[in-house]
# Entry
Amino acid sequence: MQPSKVYLIDRESLWIRWDDNSETKIPLKKLREFCPCATCLAERANQSSTFIPLMLSSQTEVKNIEQVGTYAIQITWKDGHNTGIYEYPFLRSLAEQSTE
Ligand SMILES: [Zn+2]
# Structure
């Protein structure tokens, strides 16, 4: 499945329309919190279960989004972090976990 459109909504959510016309909306905070890069994975692995992540606004604002091949998008955050490659199935699973 490929995205046909990717939008940012109110600087708070990433909204993806897929080529089957289904839609996925993911809060940016959640995207950053679950950044799949090696650095962030290691950081999360070291956190205790009571750790509450403190997000700076520069960490949850998107500066740029680029498509990576046919399988993922790469997000550059305002604080310069850009090593997270978000594969499409991962994005869909993030959205499905959300309880709004
Ligand atoms: Zn990361």
